[in-house]
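Deliverable D5.2: sample structural annotation.
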Amino acid sequence: MSEEKQTFLESSLLEEYLLGLTTPEDAAKVERMLETNADVRAEYARMQRDVEQFCDTYSQAPPPDLREFVLGDLNAQSEPEIVTPDPKSAPREEYKPVMVPVQGGSGLNWMSAAAALAALIAVAAAVFLYNQNTELRTQLAASMEQQETIARELANIRSSLQSQQTAQTVAYHPQTETVLLRGTDKSPGLGVVAYWNRETEQSFLNVLWLPDIPDKCYQLWADVHGEMINLGVLDLTQAPFAPIEFKVDAESLNITIEPIGGSDHPTVTDLVSSIQI
């Protein structure tokens, strides 16, 4: 759904247009959307059906004598009758037209007002139900998104637990070599434990201590036939027994200080730890 269409549907212009409350400019905008967008037309048709269904649900049959009442009321609304007294029976100074008031007419006006009021209530109720429905759909979408987020988090937790279980199995395997990479004078507080198993060809890392180095990072390398292979940047936030790439012919593990993000090639002058495996 395009952003323009989504913004339009989330506004109240469509409901106002249905009720005849839009300005000429807004009405033109709604009609343009109705002409060019099938989704907007479908939503407008659905709103019309909701209003019709609501009116059908709460409508009542008119009284059986309503037709006769209305016709009688209409017949009663004629021109006022002018009664002229007989000049022979009344003095000339008292001779003047007499207006005979017409009775009736209030019943039809009351029925029209009641019908208009009922129609306004029906439309208002339909708009309220539509807004409620829209709000519920929004809440449902948010709930589904939250459930998907929780499901992803649970999947990540299960994967992490499984990885930890595998790492612990490797750590206690009789063929696993456990080595401690201690820091040199350049980084005396550094401490990283590596678990290296040539039989299962698995390797894991447990970062214990990493001294803070502003604008720098620690990077792990494996020496394979004299070539330093990047095994990743070290981070205190790494989970215990974090897996690292296993190198079959690795002869040593090494840690250097590199710029933030790591380097393609190790900075040998900033080597802070090295151990044979």
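Annotation notes: Residues 106-171 form the longest helix (66 residues). Confidence is low (pLDDT under 50) at residues 93-110.
The annotation will be released with the project's public dataset once the embargo ends.
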